[in-house]
User: What shape does this take?
Amino acid sequence: MSAPLLSVEGLSKTYASPGPFRPRPGAEALDGVSFVLAEGETLAIAGESGSGKTTLGLIVARLEEATAGAIRLGGEDWLALTGKALRRARRNVQIVFQDPATSLDPRLPVGDSVAEPLRALCGLSGAALRTRVGELLASVGLDPAAAGRRPREFSGGERQRIAIARAIAPEPRIVVCDEPVAALDPSARARVLNLLLDLRERTGVAYLFISHDMEAIRIVADRVAVLYAGRLVEEASAEEFFSAPRHPYSSALLAGRALPGEPPDPAAFPPGCRFHPRCPSARARCAVEVPPTGEESGGRRAACFFPAEQAEKTKLSGADRVIG
Amino acid sequence: MTASLSVRDLTVVLASAAGTHPVLDAVSLEVDPGRSRALVGESGGGKTMLARAVMRLLPPAAAVVSGEVRVGGIDLLRLSESEMERRRGGAVGLVFQEPLAALDPVRSVGSQVAEAVRRHAGLDGRAARRRAIALLEETGLPQAARRFDDPPHALSGGMRQRVMIAAALAGDPGVLIADEPTASLDPPLAAQVLDLIDRLRRERGLALLHITHDLRRASECDRVSVLYAGRIVEEAPGKDFARAPRHPYAAALAASAAAGPDRRLPVIPGEPPALAERSAPRCAFAPRCAQVIPRCRAESPGFYAVGTARARCFLHAPPAA
Assistant: This one.
């Protein structure tokens, strides 16, 4: 078996610096997260707001430093790269954020924003650069002639497609998509999801698709990993996950059901299984021991001593409904 | 205080480099005490502008041209600015999508609720603090008295949303407008916040206007209004809307949530019309509509009854005699 495109091992992140826009001192965002991503595959990272999903994406994109753990990209030690070597390798991993304003400068014509990584990471210039920018805008369904317009002249969905054009410009092998459709209305969301599927078909790019939109995950993902309180609690193929989730938190995610209690405080996680105070099937053991995320078969695993055998019905509504 | 919300023929214009054009065009909707209405539609359709018009918090470039916004029978648009300032929180409470953006990051969450209590309920000092804690408890914030002095970033997203709801309730409003209150929350947290809003609606008899682009959530409301390019194009009971959206735009929105066999989602072609093109005498959705007929491009449709719904669409016009 050849090495996976991306392999993440024992990734941990603790925020030590206090400040008004940071989690509290000592807040733990990730604890020993491991997974692999194959060439051309889409792995969804699902989980609660504040479960560490965004931190994970930022670390994979090398926009945030890990506290511990390793990431190998195409067999190379990705976290060890610095300076020139890192800059050269950056074209392999790009990121799309929830808010396209994060990657599009409001003062720049959108064509310049798309051109920037081509110039900086691929050394393109002049006519070749202009041609490539036009092709990229066309590939996300926009008129190449729109390159001269500013972000505010586009709708939210169009801006997100421009941010995607910028991300795929250097022909990355991985695009981290951090809640790419959370801010979009249904028709703009549909277009962005279709676009991500089309681009993958065309270019063979792999996605780390971070989202709390379970329907979007159902549409784009090959595999699903679930984070809860900084730990990976379940991983399965999309088919297995949606038909029979094993972890009780996954079941709640899929059912869209309110959970008792509060999400745990990242500065003081409960002992044992971090989900046990809110878990409907918790027993004494769960409050003491950390359930291992041992592999069962075919990459399927669940960090639970009492994994749900029964698939949760995720359809909430009757068969005669057009919606839901 | 219970009160109904009644918006009648509300027209709001927006001035831009391209001229002055309506963003809301003769919009009408009603919400009775203890009832809920969803307002759905694409971004840019005017949903948030309607909320701001009701609160009289329009951006400087926007202005109400005609219509009324009655809360408990009083037309808010006819109040003087000082009367409105006194009534704003007492008449209508507003909950936004992003509590972190609405809350001051360097002040404690409790003091921000207490300030709303001082402003809208006229209480001071210890009484305001007590009232703020009671409101935080009502929204289910655990250990409200202890959390009072925490800054917003020390709270989880769901807890912050509850703080904002507590502040919105400070003036004991009859009407609550929730503008995409759960868009940034994961499903279990979203369910928790919506359960809370629903409980408050029942217990306080609030008239709830829920602005959302989640059609499933929308159809759980008593009634649904669909806004397209500044106009209401469909109005229906939530249950019936879930089964059969009647306007082609509403039907296309509903369809765009379910993937076909190739995993692709149906999309609505094109974009909503620019402000300057909206006043043309035609159906504003005609250029994007799969069921368009010549009449749609020649005149603007009125409302036609279809089942329990009303839709602004010629497809539902009675056959000509």
